[in-house]
Amino acid sequence: MSIPPSVLTIAGTDPSGGAGIQADLKTFQELKVYGMSVITSVVAQNTTGVQNIHHLPTGMLHDQLQSVLTDMPVHAIKTGMIANRDMMEVIADAIPKTNAPYVIDPVMVATSGDPLIDEEARGVLKEQLLPIATLVTPNIPEAEFIIGNSINSLADMKEAAISIVHTYGPKAALIKGGHLQGKAIDFLYDGSQLHTFAADRFDTKNTHGTGCTYSAAITANLSNGLHLIEAVQMAKHYVTEAIKHSFPLGTGNGPTNHWAIREERVK
Ligand SMILES: Nc1ncnc2c1ncn2[C@@H]1O[C@H](COP(=O)(O)OP(=O)(O)O)[C@@H](O)[C@H]1O
Ligand SMILES: Cc1ncc(COP(=O)(O)O)c(N)n1
């Protein structure tokens, strides 16, 4: 039996199972890579919003990272919610030593509108994490914060992708269009060219965890050695099917469906 690539997520939790670490591990499992996880914050949240947040002590974040990195191979890494400056600095120090592709989902606010990271952390994310990233995957509000301008059109999204790469130095930026109207269109700028990923928009409120799922799928695909464009293409298909077949669990924004692709394979 061959050993699968091992992939690490560094993120906050979601006990309702739709977003954060839980969404990442479900995605890794579906895409047949070995999932590992380092927790930054324990978040009491569900489909209706965030009820409470407990940030782990920075030393505990450091020790979890050491437990993984001193013992396990890491073929790709993603980060999600990183609540404050101290945590960002521990992570910014550890990641480059792995030489693994690094996908940053610059999580700032939950789908419900509740903030997940503090004001200072947003700035540190730009200055310390973006320069070491293989790919950053902001939604529109996150991209607006990073570039400091509003984004109202597809042309604005393209400009934002280019500007983020040239200003902050990640190798690539993927701007997600979930927050605009019309087709669900995302733009990837890889440092030389723009690439478009488009899918039908489904009329559903069950979008809790879509960003986490998407970036986790890209990370899993990169760990398998796929080229960035192919990795995003396959992940876009994964998240689109997961939204199309999402279920109305809970009373708020329900979760995505990680079995959608499996069922497609069986057909
Ligand atoms: N209603 C929808 N139908 C189809 N695709 C969607 C829908 N909403 C979001 N998407 C897609 O889901 C992915 C996650 O995007 P987005 O919702 O913008 O991120 P986030 O969860 O970080 O806010 C993107 O590929 C986006 O185009
Ligand atoms: C711990 C954690 N991380 C991230 C999100 C954002 O989720 P989404 O993918 O819906 O933007 C979340 N709600 N909770």
From TrEMBL:
Family matches, as SUPFAM superfamilies: Ribokinase-like
Top-rank taxon: Bacteria
The EC number(s) this enzyme carries: 2.7.1.49, 2.7.4.7
Single GO biological process annotation from the record: thiamine biosynthetic process
Keywords: ATP-binding, Kinase, Nucleotide-binding, Thiamine biosynthesis, Transferase
One cellular component (GO) term of this entry: cytosol
Cross-referenced Pfam families: Phos_pyr_kin
Catalytic activity reported: 4-amino-2-methyl-5-(phosphooxymethyl)pyrimidine + ATP = 4-amino-2-methyl-5-(diphosphooxymethyl)pyrimidine + ADP; 4-amino-5-hydroxymethyl-2-methylpyrimidine + ATP = 4-amino-2-methyl-5-(phosphooxymethyl)pyrimidine + ADP + H(+)
Gene Ontology MF terms: ATP binding; hydroxymethylpyrimidine kinase activity; phosphomethylpyrimidine kinase activity
Keyword Transferase: yes
Keyword Transferase belongs to the record: yes
Annotated metabolic or biological route of this protein: Cofactor biosynthesis; thiamine diphosphate biosynthesis; 4-amino-2-methyl-5-diphosphomethylpyrimidine from 5-amino-1-(5-phospho-D-ribosyl)imidazole: step 2/3; Cofactor biosynthesis; thiamine diphosphate biosynthesis; 4-amino-2-methyl-5-diphosphomethylpyrimidine from 5-amino-1-(5-phospho-D-ribosyl)imidazole: step 3/3
Pyridoxamine kinase/Phosphomethylpyrimidine kinase domain segment(s): 14-257
Record family assignment: Belongs to the ThiD family.
Name of the protein described by the UniProt record: Hydroxymethylpyrimidine/phosphomethylpyrimidine kinase
Species whose genome carries this gene: Virgibacillus massiliensis
